[in-house]
Specification:
By secondary structure, the protein is mainly α. It has 5 helices and no strands. It has one domain. α2 crosses α5. The longest helix has 18 residues.
Length: about 70
């Protein structure tokens, strides 16, 4: 669902993504869903903001921005 929201917010269809982009996006969103449902996040929600500011969080956001910038035509 999160992936669909992201795609819809950018007016993109999944078939617009290359195979590599699909794998990257699926990996990112599967990780986000697993993290959001984790015991650690439920016990310590503040850790989510630490994830966003971490190296992996910045890399995920950068990847998503890069994919969107190649596909979104304004």
């Amino acid at each position: 669902m999160l992936k669909e929201v992201w795609l819809n917010s950018l007016r993109l269809k999944e078939n617009m993504l290359s195979s590599e982009e699909k794998i990257q996006v699926n990996f990112i969103f599967a990780g986000l869903v697993a993290t959001l449902g984790s015991k650690e996040i439920r016990q310590f929600p503040i850790t989510l903001s630490a994830l966003v500011e971490s190296e992996i969080g910045r890399a995920m956001m950068s990847t998503m921005r890069e994919i969107a910038s190649r596909l979104v035509v304004e």
